[in-house]
Structure formats: structure tokens, C-alpha cells
Design brief:
By secondary structure, the chain is of the alpha+beta class. It has a single domain (26-133), classed as conserved putative lor/sdh protein from methanococcus maripaludis s2 fold. Helix content is 26%, strand content 37%. It is built from 4 helices and 11 strands. A 5-stranded antiparallel beta sheet has the order 1-2-8-7-6. It starts with a helix and ends with a helix.
Length: 137
């Protein structure tokens, strides 16, 4: 039994570094964002499909002062901060701080956040946060 365990450890170590040795693309990578400490999450098309990421557009509020996003796009941090993930370009996701004025039903009214028309993630934000924060490495 000790021999078998001794053989499995090198096999696992080899498999963990297999992506680098085979040249296969990692499903996700982080990229610095100029002027910010928040990194961009860049996914492969296969990763986006596997995670089933869904987005919706930020809309201008009726009053002209606030913008709206689906409540599902609001992500709450451990210390009460609120943010959403924007999708500024294909396969790219960036965490954006938001200020929620109120939530009515399934709609969040923002006093600060992404511009109208910006795509925000409504399904899959916890997975993006996991990639960004290194959970699972």
C-alpha cells in the first residue's frame, strides 16, 4: 500500500502542472486594470459556457438620476460593500463598486455604478469572485 501511495503523489504533481507542459490554455486568467487594484477576469469561451454566465444591460432609471440593474446582479461583500461584475468586452469581467439606493422586487436602483448599456453579470458572479480571489488554487 505504501508503494501505491508513493506512486500516486508524483502522478498528481505531474497532472497539476500538465497545462503548462502541454501548452493548453487555462480556463481563466487575471489581468491588471490600469489605475485600479481590481483585476480583470478573462475566461475562455468554454469556461463561460461551462459556468453558464448570464448578463443583462444596465438601464437608465425613469427619474434620470438613478440607473437600474437586476437584483440578481448585486453582489454583497463580507463587510457590506456592494458591487457587480461588468462585462465590458467578450470573455472579460470586471468587478465594479456600486451604490444601491433601493431594491424594489427584482430591480436594484443605483445612485452610482456602471453606465446605462453596460452588461452586468446576473448569473455566475460567485464563480468570478472565486477566480479573482484565488479560491480553489
Amino acid at each position: 500500500m505504501i508503494i501505491v501511495a508513493g506512486l500516486l503523489v508524483p502522478a498528481c504533481a505531474e497532472a497539476k502542472g500538465a497545462d503548462k507542459s502541454t501548452g493548453l490554455e487555462e480556463p481563466a486568467r487575471l489581468e491588471a486594470t490600469q489605475g485600479s487594484d481590481i483585476e480583470r477576469v478573462i475566461l475562455t469561451a468554454e469556461a463561460v459556457e461551462r459556468l453558464d454566465l448570464q448578463t443583462a444591460a444596465v438601464e437608465a432609471g425613469a427619474s434620470g438620476n438613478a440607473t437600474t440593474i437586476p437584483h440578481a446582479a448585486v453582489f454583497y461583500g463580507l463587510t457590506g460593500e456592494t458591487w457587480t461584475y461588468s462585462n465590458p468586452e467578450s470573455l472579460t469581467y470586471v468587478r465594479v463598486p456600486i451604490t444601491v439606493d433601493r431594491i424594489q422586487g427584482e430591480v436594484a436602483y443605483l445612485t452610482d455604478g456602471p453606465e446605462p448599456g453596460t452588461q452586468v453579470v446576473t448569473l455566475g458572479a460567485p464563480e468570478l469572485f472565486g477566480v479573482e480571489s484565488g479560491i480553489g488554487d
